[in-house]
Design brief:
Number of helices: 2
Distance between the termini: 34 Å
Largest sheet: none
Shape: globular
Strand content: under 5%
């Protein structure tokens, strides 16, 4: 818990995008780095009202990934 809110996860994400850029995995406009729609935690087994927190976290994660790709991937 000591790393929460300190940008450690974002730093790892930035480094991953940077490596993808170096290896040519990112196309123009940042295409090539995205969350998989059917990832391991995407299947929801609980009723809708219990999934709201998961959905909110996933939206936030996707937004951060888009920001990082635009910052790091767009600056080639």
């Amino acid at each position: 818990m000591r790393y929460r809110g300190n940008g450690v996860g974002r730093g790892l994400l930035e480094e991953g995008v940077r490596v993808a850029v170096q290896r040519g995995c990112i196309l123009g406009g940042g295409k090539g780095v995205e969350f998989e729609g059917g990832h391991a935690n995407s299947h929801r087994v609980l009723p809708e009202m219990f999934n709201r927190g998961f959905e909110r976290s996933e939206r936030r994660a996707r937004a951060v990934l888009e920001e990082v790709v635009a910052e790091v991937g767009g600056g080639r």
